[in-house]
Design a protein that fits this description.
It is a single chain. The chain folds into two domains: 59 residues, no CATH class; 113 residues, Thrombin, subunit H. The chain has 181 residues and is mainly beta. The termini are far apart.
Length: 181
């Protein structure tokens, strides 16, 4: 396998032939870590490393926001062409929340890419309504009609995001204090 020669502070990373290294790569927005060994270096026409086939490949999470496991009430309306569809509003509960989205537990199985108008009732902050999109759907138990739906916020003001993040940190602090008692 050939990779661009790694650089650090504008200088090539120095390694000897046969030396083992750990690397990271992003493929289709998914991040992976791996182990490999340097087989050879080449400077011309481009500085590259020839490396052994990677092993110990692991998918890694690269979340931009801290997640908090918490059950909060959620109301969801489906959207098409930027407008709410006249269907009944679905009531659900969050599994976890972050500054970038939520995961809910629901009996509704939305398709990935579905656009939703999501209202989460955050204790102490109040309700926040945001245009969102389904990014992940899991069915944890095949014999039950229950889905875990990952939803990312599409449009969120920095004020709303900041309030959500403050809420998360406050709840984490409360949980830590309870753990110390």
């Amino acid at each position: 396998m050939t990779i661009a020669m790694p650089m650090s502070k504008g200088l090539p990373v120095l390694m000897r032939r046969g030396e083992i290294f750990f690397g990271r790569t992003v493929i289709n927005s998914l991040a992976f870590e791996f182990t490999s060994a340097l087989l050879a270096k080449q400077i011309n026409p481009l500085p590259i490393w020839i490396v052994a086939v990677p092993y110990n490949i692991k998918k890694i999470q690269q979340r931009a926001f801290v997640r908090l496991d918490v059950a909060l009430p959620v109301q969801i309306a489906k959207m098409e062409d930027g407008q709410v569809i006249d269907e009944p509003v679905i009531n659900a509960v969050t599994k976890d929340i972050s500054g970038g989205g939520i995961q809910i537990a629901t009996t509704n199985e939305w398709q990935i890419g579905s656009k939703l108008l999501v209202t989460v009732d955050y204790q102490d902050i109040g309700a926040i309504t945001l245009k969102s999109e389904v990014v992940r759907v899991q069915q944890p138990q095949p014999d039950r009609v229950l889905f875990w739906v990952g939803i990312k916020f599409l449009e969120i003001s920095e004020r709303d995001r900041g309030n959500i993040i403050k809420f998360i940190f406050k709840k984490q602090l409360e949980q830590r204090r309870k753990g110390l008692e």
